[in-house]
Amino acid sequence: MQAIDLFFPRLTTVSKVVITMHQKPDGDAMGSALGLYHFLQSFGHDVTVISPTNWANFLDWMPGIEKVVDYERWRDRGKALISEADWIFCLDFNVLHRTKHMEQPLTQAQCTKILIDHHEQPQAEAFAYGISDTSKSSTCEMVYDFIVASGHADKLSIDIAKCLYTGVMTDTGSFRFPSTTASVHRMVAHLKDLGLEHTPVHEAIYDNFLETRLRFIGYALLNRMEVFYEYNTALMYITKADLQRFDIKTGDTEGLVNYLLTIRGIKLGAIVVDRDEERKWSFRSKGHFDVNTFARTHFEGGGHHNASGGRSSDSLETTAAHFKEVIKLYQNQLQ
Ligand code: 5GP
Ligand code: MN
Fold it and tell me: By alpha-carbon position, which residue is closest to atom 18 of ligand 1?
């Protein structure tokens, strides 16, 4: 993988471009993809964002999202776009299998692939150009850096600002995680100078759920949470019946894991959701406990030091029991 600045001279050659991100895109994945989309469009490129799967409703206000192709619904169209592309930008994921059914067409595509990502241990050999920086708050911050470093900061528009602010806000937990550096605040200051209104963005993302989701959270906190004080760990498990009872949609379980870390002294929070195809894990930690390694070692996943995810093909009961066994190995590190 060559340094991303070597790609900058090619920006002005009109090209067919695909931008993609990890499955079930969150605010950072969708925000970075759409921010880059508006930027590249301003050069006259033919740009399409392809999402590997559907996404949460609370992203539907984002400028340009109505043009995003959901690969699970429009597979033939997605395949054709990938095979015709000159460049494919891969944003906010480190390994191609995080694009689910797109992994194979992406691997086979012979065009120029570019990575912009902040997860640990990227699959660098799969990309011609790229930047992987785990110290960055978000892929949105990296797309901002990309735009500024390329010498085209004059192309930053309000639409780009809204998209990029979204991912920086969501991935930093609204500017509270340690990844919230001075550069993050400088970037936001720049976007504000350009005229960004941040309150509507915050409200569109966080104050946009149905009543059922709030009742679901209450139910889960009461009935589906276990706390293991000897390991400073809290676990939440959500059954298929729970998802049906409260009509839970993509995105409705996002953020739930953070409640676990609000208990005094808790250093590891984990939630497992019984999805159709797999049991999906989310891990969050405070301080030095490394949930990237934890997810990689025990739950077929990875991510960042303090936030990671994983999966299991076992039943909900089995994978939850496995978790309760595994934390015993980390009793010292969790003190
Ligand atoms: P979440 O718990 O919100 O799904 O994910 C937390 C962080 O870990 C995000 O940065 C996400 O991209 C990453 N992540 C989630 N699941 C996986 C996974 O299965 N593999 C890897 N490598 N990263 C993941
Ligand atoms: Mn991210």
Answer: 301
